[in-house]
Every structure is written in C-alpha cells, then in structure tokens.
C-alpha cells in the first residue's frame, strides 16, 4: 500500500502504446456471457482515464490512483475486457536503525471481465543513497535544488519549486538524480 505523497510517487508509464493486443487465457472459458474464450485475441485501446491521476498530489495526502488502462471498447466503465497497469514507488526505512532509505517499487496488472477481477503484482526493493535523516515529506529546502512536478505529461517535466541563483536572466541547473545519473537543465530567460 502506498504511503502518503511525496514519500510515495506514481510510476512513470513512458512508452505505452495507444493499443495493445492480448490473448485470453483458460479462465475466460468459465465466464458466462463473455464474448471471449480461451485463445481469443482482443485488441484493447486506451481509455479516457488512462494515465490520469484520480486526485491531487498534495503533500501528506494519500497517493492518487494512476493507471494505464486499456479496454476492448476504449471506455472505462462499459467493457467486456479491461486491463490496467499499475505502479508506484514508496520510500521507507526498512528497519528503524537503517542509515539510508529504501525504495519499494510495486508494479502490477489487473484484468477485469464479466466477474473476473484478478490482480498480479511484483515488488522490487532498492537501497538508495538518501540518508535516513532526510525529510522526504517536504520540497528540497536547500538553494540550488529542484522539485519536479509528478503530474507532468507527454514525456515533459515541470519544475514546481526551485531555489537558486540565475545569472544574467538565465538559470542553469545541474546535479545528480538519485536513480538516474547526471542531469543538466538550462532554463530560458527568467522574468
């Protein structure tokens, strides 16, 4: 179960296609009224709620549900087959004496069809370089650090908090992303 935001963050579902094609498994033979059976190949399209956060990202509040949702009709509520991909990461101390935070990355898929509702999840555990004394419930308090808006869409990222010095009307940022390596960003003219 995810912790409160920002200790938990949604997965970024980069590169998901507009449609997926699935082959139904043996469980479909037991579904009365379902137009699909074992071996049926079904093309599912993104639904309107696909990739959209179902709530606001407010520090201290529950992490909003955000899934990549595909259905045979392209609708969220009227479908014969719906497949939802889920994921989030949660920072935590695995033991009270730990010197650094750990990160649990949970990935899953849910299949819904005519009374069938099955979820499959896997959790990866990672050690981070974030020291245990770090307060992850607040935007970074030090000058020169960036807080990234997790709601940014279409492979873009929006900086929602920045403390630092820009020279001659420009701001340049560089640093190391905790799990992504070196990062460099130059912002256009500031006002």
Largest beta-sheet details: 7 strands, antiparallel
Spatial separation of the terminal alpha carbons = 42 Å
User: What is the total tally of β strands?
Assistant: 11
What is Rg? 21 Å
Helical content, roughly?
under 10%
- What's the order of the H and E elements? EEEEEEEEEEE
Tally the structural domains. 2
Oligomer: single chain
Describe the model.
- The protein has 191 residues and is an all-beta fold.
- The chain folds into two domains: 8-88 and 108-121, no CATH class; 145-187, no CATH class.
- 0% of the residues lie in helices and 44% in strands.
- It contains no helices and eleven strands.
- The chain has strands at residues 8-10, 19-23, 41-46, 68-71, 82-92, 100-113, 116-131, 145-149, 158-163, 171-177, 181-187.
- Strands 1, 2, 3, 4, 5, 6 and 7 form a seven-stranded antiparallel sheet that branches. A two-stranded antiparallel sheet has the order 8-9.
- Strand 5 (82-92) and strand 6 form a beta hairpin.
What's the quick description here?
By secondary structure, the protein is mainly β. It contains no helices and eleven strands.
